[in-house]
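[step 3/7] fold_predict: job queued, chain A
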Amino acid sequence: MNNTDIVYEQSRCVVHELRNHLSICDIYTQIIKKYLEEEGVKNSSIDKGLDSIAKSVKIMYNSLLDLKSLNNISLKECSIKNILEEGIHLSKVYILDKEIKITNSVNTDAKVYIDENKFLSCVVNIIKNAIEAIDQKGKINISLQKENNNVHIKISNNGTPISKEKQQAIFEEGYTTKSKGSGLGLHICANNLKAQNCILRLNKSTPKITEFEIILPIYKN
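[step 4/7] structure written:
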């Protein structure tokens, strides 16, 4: 076993253990909420505390999803609709106190052959970027279309546009539009998707809309 394999195996074990503990935290949060409801106890501070714990658990889960995606690619047949809906659900935790409406235009489905963890991590990352591009109030739309033998996923937002000068560099390693960003997010997403025979591209970024698109083949066994 080489050093890379050792790192992959260690990361897999760490993710497994941490997810178990996060699941316990989530379960006990729900138990406490249910107990308070049954006892008729109303306390805004407790409610806010439990909500904060629940959000923290989801954010940590998303981070572990990124870590798990470092493992070697494991392709399998998946429902693209189910993965997108899960990605939308996980991403909503990043909205926090913003007024952002996420609309889901995923009205069809298709079988695709991808690495579920890597693909889901990319979807969450792109939606999270869209949330961060919106200062306070805005909207995000995720759509799914089938065209010929491909699936087209479009993730759009009406937040701050990416300048024309910077649009050419957004997928490069080290590039970031954030003051505290690492510049690895979209670069890793693009590479992960490419390894799954998918394409990630920026279709447009104007004051009205910024739209990213993922294109991948429909799986035919």
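[step 5/7] annotate
The chain has two domains: 3-68, 76-217.
Residues 29 and 51 are 9 Å apart (CA to CA).
exit 0
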